[in-house]
Amino acid sequence: MLAKARARKAGEGGETIGQRERNKRDKLMRIKSAARELFVSKGYDDTTTREIALRAGVGMGTVFTYADNKRDLLFLIANEDLAEAERRAKGDLSPDASMLQNLTTIFRDHYEYFAQQPELSKLMLREMLFYDSGEQANRFKVTREHFLALIVESVGFAVKRGEIAPHEDPRFIGWVVFCLYQVEIRRWLAEGNLDASAGIASLERAIRLLISGLSPRQAPKGRADARPARGKAR
Hints:
Number of domains: 2
CATH topology of the largest domain: Tetracycline Repressor, domain 2
Structural class: mainly alpha
């Protein structure tokens, strides 16, 4: 009898913990949904955290359990999706693929994600450019570093295969590629053409230019200059 009572009590405790976790997830989803809706409908600058709490049906203290400030709420909306995109890209990278193929793999999910909610994406990219401290901002920084590491890894694959022979550190090259992506995705969103393939194609063009470089190419050995030497024309 005592053993059954203990088992029943343990089960009830498990149910209580499970319900508590479900309540937390439900509140989190409501806060994220309320923030997303208000940021898009009213604009980020005109939305207050109090309005988000009211829309979500939670107290202000609950909002600040998940995000330190209003900007942190933007990161809260995006963090899980961006982290998942980074994990997918990591699984799809191949040492046998070209540098351009690997980089396209890394960036494609981001273009498709931002295309789904363009107005919110513009807000995110605006605020993320000068992110400050906060729990969600710190999570974003970690994801961003993992994202950058994937770019550097793609560069490393290309170096090992002899596809490129850079004179710069792969980490710096990765940073330059990341900078190209930052500019290109903002330009793509600003133009309003939300075809992810078109955005990727424009980014690929910029990366190809980076890979090929702008230096004049040497003429093949044994090839004579087609122009006649001065004073010897006949």
